[in-house]
Amino acid sequence: MTxxxxxxxxxxxxxxxxxxxxxxxxxxVKLVVWFLVLFxxxxxxxxxxxxxxxxxxxxxxxxxxxxLVFKLPHELGKFFRFVDPIKPGDIIVFMSExxxxxxxxxxxxxxxxxxxxxxxxxxxxxxxxxDMTSVRYEDGTVYVNNRRLSxxxxxxxxxxxxxxxxxxxxxxGQYYVLGDNRTISKDSRSFGPISDGEIIGHAVFxxxxxxxxxxxx
Length: 217
What we know:
By secondary structure, this protein is α+β, with helices and mostly antiparallel strands. The chain has two domains: about 15-40; about 45-215, Umud Fragment, subunit A (Ribbon). The protein has four helices and twelve strands, in the order ααββαβββββββαβββ. It has helices spanning about 10, 20-45, 70-75, 190; strands at about 45-50, 65-70, 90-95, 105-110, 135-140, 140-145, 145-150, 165-170, 175-180, 195, 200-210, 215. The strands form two sheets. Strands 1, 2, 3, 4, 9, 10, 11 and 12 form an eight-stranded antiparallel beta sheet that branches. Strand 5 and strand 6 (about 140-145) form a beta hairpin. The longest helix is centred in the first third of the chain and has 28 residues, at about 20-45. It is elongated.
């Protein structure tokens, strides 16, 4: 005759015992921690969402539009000299070090000599020095190393401006940035070139509003 088996109330009713609940709780906490770590790493070093504030980038970007900022190439460029991810024409987001300590979104107009070579800018004799790039803003037109830029992305009335600014020399690791809406943009015309260390990343994709979703130019 077999002896009757004794079960705890939890086991008899089909519920996990205390040890099983404890293990499941630990696994859940581990999963949450790993998710948070991954989220922080991706947001810090790979890609981040950003909301445009103001109209200084119209018509390319409007107020309250949301964009994705790709950070990874710029982060890699801090460690590998052959990586030069930011180019003239790119839209970037950067943290201003000029008092306000706020984020800006602007377009790169010119850069100093690429990090991989300090002689590229003056190799053809177009720059004032081998490691410097000349930027001049005259009557609403931009000249880089005395060559007029063709800018099809700026606001329609930008070429009607009569504003002129003194020549600016952009050195290695520096970038001259302007807003596409030149009439109201606060940019390198007022605070000068920005440094490589101020850049957060390259704005690559607009995801809001939905009807304007797509890659940025």
